[in-house]
Amino acid sequence: MRISIKLKSKADIGVKDFYYKFNSAINSFIHNRISALNLHDSKGYKPFCFGNLYPVKDRIEQGKIYEITIASPLPQVISELILSFRRGEKIGVGEGFFELCGAQIRKIQLKRGDCIYSVSPIVIKEKGHFVDYSKERERFIFLLNRNLLNKYNFFNKTSITSINLFANVKIKPIKNRFLVKNITTKDKDIAVAGYALSFRFGKLSETSLKVLNYVFDLGFGIKNTYGFGFMIKKLK
């Protein structure tokens, strides 16, 4: 499930200044809203991801309405978030300042023939280094497959390990380059590197389709709670 939040900007701000603290700010914003679920201190995967502010070009303009989407496969996360919102409340996001104008819940069902793509880099890391899709494609896909199965198993208490989610899936890079993004977290600045990819579903098995529908709202790869690997469905 997903929540689309509409935000009215209360000030002009450059995109570079805004996005430097954006990922950490939204991460904290969500954690604060769902603190009753005690997810921050729990071990293992966290059940949410989020997209970029939209639509944004060179600047965020005062008085303009923007949108951000938060996704989670857990109904309790969505419920906590939607109940915490108050129309007209003021929200600080990094260097930006907004007024909440509304929120809408949406459920997206993926099916065979659909195409999904990442609006932020999919990040895969192994032995301390970020895996470059263009140089290590097979390894990248293998590790991504394992990452998604591990997340599905974690939240559903299953033990699916022997399937290839990407059999009969056509994978293409959106931007044929390794994307590096500098972000700030609570205690330090870090560089995160990944690839933006699209996935065209072919004749998937029922199990693969079930898993992909679930992890679609968790995000692909790692650093999902900082907005990386956020997936959306391409409109036909």
Describe the structure.
With 236 residues, this protein is α+β, with helices and mostly antiparallel strands. It contains four helices and 15 strands. α3 packs across α4. The chain starts with a strand and ends with a strand.
Secondary structure blueprint with pairings:
Blueprint: E1 2-9, E2 13-14, H1 15-33, E3 49-50, E4 59-60, E5 65-71, H2 75-84, E6 90-93, E7 96-106, E8 115-118, E9 125-126, E10 129-130, H3 137-156, E11 169-173, E12 179-184, E13 189-194, E14 197-201, H4 206-215, E15 231-233
Antiparallel strand pairs: 1-5, 1-7, 2-4, 3-5, 6-7, 8-14, 8-15, 9-10, 11-14, 12-13
Helix pairs in contact: 3-4
Q: Which sheet architecture does the biggest sheet show?
A: 5 strands, antiparallel
| Strand runs, count | 15
Q: How far do the termini sit from each other? A: 20 Å
Reading side by side through the largest sheet, how are the strands ordered?
3-5-1-7-6
Number of helices: 4
Short description:
This protein has 236 residues and is of the alpha+beta class.
Features of the shown structure:
236 residues, alpha+beta, 2 domains, five-stranded antiparallel beta sheet, four-stranded antiparallel beta sheet, 4 helices, 15 strands, 29% strand, globular
